Amino acid sequence: MKFGSITLTVVASAICVLGLYQLLSAVTWLRYMDSGYLHEQSHFTQHFTARKGDIKSKIHIQDMRSITCKNTTLKKLDPFHPSALPYIPHFPPLKCRRQASVAESKVDGDGYLTLIIKNYSKVTDNIHCYYQYIRHPTKPYKEDEAFVLSKRIDLSPANRVKLQEDFVYVFCINETGYKVYENFHLHMVKKEEELISKKYSEITGNQPRLNVLIVINDGVSMSGAVRYLPKTIEYLKKEMNGTIFPGCHAVGENSLPNLFPLLTGLPHTEASIDAPFVWKHFSEKGYKTFYLEDKVWATFTYVDPEATRPPADYYTHPFWVAMENSSLYWDSQTFCLGNDPIHRIALQYLGYYVENYQRQSYFGLYFLNELSHDYGSAIQLADADYRDFLKEHNERGHFNNTIMLFMSDHGSRFFGLRSTPIGHLEASNPLLTMVLPPWLKQQYPHIAEAVNSNAERLVTPYDIHATHDYGSAIQLADADYRDFLKEHNERGHFNNTIMLFMSDHGSRFFGLRSTPIGHLEASNPLLTMVLPPWLKQQYPHIAEAVNSNAERLVTPYDIHATLVDILHSDLPITKKSTNGKKRRERLAKGISLFQNLPSRTCASAGIPEDTCTLCTPLEPTFLDINSQKARFIANAVLTKINYVLVNATSECDVLLISDITYIAVTSYDRLSVTYIVIVKTVPGSGIFEASVLETRAMASDSTESQYTVITPVIRISLYDNNCCCAEDSRIDKYCHCKVTRRQSRSKVFPLYY
What we know:
By secondary structure, the protein is an alpha/beta fold. Helix content is 26%, strand content 25%. 58% of the residues are buried. Strands 1, 27, 28, 29, 30, 31 and 32 form a 7-stranded mixed β-sheet that branches. Strands 10, 11, 18, 20, 23 and 25 form a 6-stranded mixed β-sheet that branches. Strands 4, 5, 6, 8 and 9 form a 5-stranded antiparallel β-sheet that branches. α15 packs parallel to α19 (540-548). The two termini are 21 Å apart. Pfam families: DUF229.
């Protein structure tokens, strides 16, 4: 289960009240320091028994301060940096096997449901089988109850049933009512065609309208995509002429802060039910809309957890909730539903959509969480499937009128790599790839030119949104992705599709995330864009712009701006504006990837200072973790965490430091030094990261330094089962409950870290 990241701000009504809180917090913390309540097994224990006077004079608790980073130069991260190598696992192929069953249900390509009873006997003679449709609720509901079932309908082995709805649950019971078989099926039943409004027809005439397909992989950095999706990336680049954007930069820690700007052009702090989600605008223009996210706690359920109306024409959320409430799901292998990989079930459904609507304009959003949210490297399991999906639909011409974004929301947020300096950088560097139709590149060469130019620029989700206005477990999926792309590309299913193959962020957890390079990777998610060949030919300036932008800083705001470009079909036909010609006003933060991006700082691109990695060195200077200064820097982070906990609830333990992973210098001048620090805490084995500013009155005197935490303290390890006992869910990432709670149900994952 994942939780949205909300910055916690302590507000006091008067200075005296804030001062009292600080004093009480410091006294409480010092009491624990003096009581010897420290992790006895840690060799760091001796370093955290500082005197009261030292701590009170050197550590400041105050609101977050910003760091002014003026750098505009992008960093080129090495996916195989020496510090990352120990954290790059390779998984065997995913093979899903279920226990022998008395029955088997299937849905063929024409949408007929059939049932086979195996090994007829006295036992199977008394089996009765049924099917039910899974539907979206029409009344407010709890998140884990976000589906309703139709009345059960008899399912006989002798009959083929033509499905009338997309989501089907099949089960068989014996004479005592015991369930002996169950299964779930996803198959698209095409909805009745809707006429495009007369007004829009008058505007567009007979010109083809671009489809938009956004494929998002949770937590895959640009470097992670190179490591774990080699087949997919190669096919996107060589066979679909996609443009990769190594300058894509996350604007937040997790999915919501990155995807909300992409889909609305607004920061996630403005999230609400009435937000201007781009799929609403596409729907108003006559587009069919599709939204698939394969987890119960989906990204936008935090915005509207009791939505009674599906946000898109095809919305699969009820299916996944029903699936995760079944015994079949929990009895299956990790990443599997019975005999089928879950990501392959989702890709097959996406394939139905791409094929059925290739001749009618559509906006599709596919967000894969299952593989890479918790275990970023497991995305390699989908590589061949992705490649085959793209190949099939590309060769069948299904993408000929489609702009595709293959991307991520951010890099990996957890595990070993994230605790390294390179993992810190990767976390803010998500994957982003854009594919333009060939005809668009030919007709609008300046767009292709701008896209190519922007490949080397800073790009954010705001820029992706702005483009609307112009017309590690993941490696397990590498072969699957490649085969998916290959199949649909060769069948021409992408001939009218712009595809984005992307991630939301880099890896957030586990080993690599705890390294400096893992820190960088977390902010560098995958982003790949595929343009239809005709679009590149007809609009070569678009292809040129996309290729140019591949080397620029890119954020989710830019991706959103790009989607807005597509929506309005207002493709630029010249590189420079003509005098007297009315031009659309630029969005607040995002710049379309179809226009040449300027060199930008993080601030000008809408990237918060605490997320910005442009001023983080690739090879930082490390501080001796056994030094007195390291003790004070680590204590600053710990005091900030405990200050929040003590003043928010009495349900959580006060935390203590068990280890310092590293402290690295990120910037310095005569009177100040900024550090990135990663610490491990007990109880609960949490791993946390923050930036700490050291300031001193005189350049030559470091003995009187003050240490201030200037960014939110983020968790880069997975939550344990004792995190969620306080009423305020915003402190779950810090909390270890004093009272042990009943362990939640979870699948066992064979770790390769």
